[in-house]
Amino acid sequence: MKSLKSIYLCRNFFNQTIPPELGSLPSLEYLDLGDNFLSGKIPEELGNITSLIRLYLFDNNLSGVLPDQLANLVNLEYLYLQTNEFIGALPQSFKNLKKLTYFNVQGNNLNQRIPDIFEQWQDLRILNLMGNSFSGPLLGQIPKLKNLMELQISDLVGEISSFPKLSGMESLRVLTLRNCSIADRIPVEIWNLSSLLYLDLSFNSLFGAIPEAVNSTLNYIFLRRNKLNETIPSWMNEISYVDVSENSFKNVNISSKEHLNPNL
Hints:
The chain is about 0% helix and about 25% strand. By secondary structure, it is mostly beta strands. A 12-stranded parallel beta sheet has the order 1-2-4-6-8-10-12-14-15-17-19-20, with no helix packed on it. A 6-stranded parallel beta sheet has the order 3-5-7-9-11-13, with no helix packed on it. A two-stranded parallel ribbon has the order 16-18.
């Protein structure tokens, strides 16, 4: 089947390994093996499918390290590897994947420092690194991704981080920096990002006050277990859901709506 363009085998009960013979399909553009029970490593041979645009391997039992050979997929735009059992580092060679728009490795066992590769991904829209054990601190490459719409990172270990400079990221809709060892003030520009709808900065060491007035589109705010102080501003009454519990606010200047959870 040398002319085959797409394989859709998601949401079945396949429970073996990924056959390396798939690497001999030179025209393949779309490979979806997500939501099965596949195990073992990603075959290095998949790196031979340089025509591949979308690769979905999420929600399986795949393990081992991510093969460097995937960096040969220079036309890849979607790479979904979440909810598996991958270990080790993100390969430095992945910087060659310059056409990536969606990258998700949430819920694996990846570790070591987050490599300096994302600056090469200028078309990236979604970056999800949550639920791994990457080492901090947060790198300065993230603010250079001006087209990013979702940035989600959690559970960094090691060094304390300052808050990344995200002032120019006007396309950002979802920002999660949860349990990332950030010890800093929340920059004022975060509250004024024109597209931001969802903000989760819980379980850090953030300090200082929340601005009394913002130009915000936020619907969901999670600031649980930080060191924020002063008052809770009244504009938070207009937000769909807010959790500011386990902080050090002096006064609770908000109504008793259920969606506001000061828990002081």
